Amino acid sequence: MxxxxxxxxxxxxxxxxxxxxxxxxxxxLHKLYEHGWKIILVTGRMYSFAKREADxxxxxxxxxxxNGADILEMPNVKLADQAYFGLDVVQLLDELYQNIESDFxxxxxxxxxxxxYYRSKNFPSxxxxxxxxxxxFSGAPWKDCQDFHFEGxxxxxxxxxxxxxxxxxxxxxxxxxxxxxxxxxxxDGFYHLILVTHPDATKGRALRRIQKxxxxxxxxxxxxxxxxxxxxxxxxxxxxxxxxxxKEVLSHGQIIAKPxxxxxIISALETAIAQC
Length: 276
Prior knowledge:
- With about 280 residues, the protein is α/β, with parallel strands linked by helices.
- The chain has two domains: about 5-85 and about 200-275, HAD superfamily/HAD-like (Rossmann fold, 3-Layer(aba) Sandwich); about 85-195, Hypothetical Protein, Haloacid Dehalogenase-like Hydrolase, Chain: A, domain 2.
- The protein has helices spanning about 25-35, 45-55, 85-95, 130-135, 165-175, 205-215, 230-235, 245-250, 265-275; strands spanning about 5-10, 40, 60-65, 70-75, 80, 105, 115-120, 145, 155-160, 180-185, 190-195, 220-225, 240, 255.
- It has an eight-stranded mixed sheet, sandwiched between helices.
- The radius of gyration is 18 Å and the shape is globular.
- The two termini are about 15 Å apart.
- The mean pLDDT is about 95.
């Protein structure tokens, strides 16, 4: 029997402190799939980073990476939909970063190697170990550039790196794209990120695109813990916010789940399903 959609953020919602999805959670999601629920993982991660956890899941599901820039049918890694942006966004960010002592990262997309373009000369030495840690999660070596010149190319994601107050000013001047200002889970919240994607690459719009692709009218349950999760919490019939989420996110949760380190998503989903 087909029920509906369960859309889940990965980091901070499913994963523990080790950035891995516990086996108990995967087993529980498999059981929900067998009972007719369509499982969707919606993440800001690039594909090669998400793949580390996605490969542990052996039943059919959907994976929306980089906030829905690419939507993949898993485990066969078949592209279902895509939303990329062009060079004009890069040029605007070059102007906005003129007085900031860091830089932004441009991601190439999973079909072209899933690597990252960056300019090491624009980052202070204090960020070197952080950048090396980020690169370690990539499926390919990063490409160090003197300047960003990519005539005719399109991109799934830009990550603006820095501190909250300076990034807030950058975000206010970014137009024509979708932006999410979040704590960087890799730096344990020391740095913040602006995730810049195509207007159709939000977690909410990605969820709607998958719903249309599957032609499912059943209920939507969504769970998340950060600001980029809000668009899918807003469109869900039943929304779950993790207890560890910022206040702005908690206000969008009809159900508040215990932390992911305590496998809180399992009991929260049980409560949500009982309400359907």
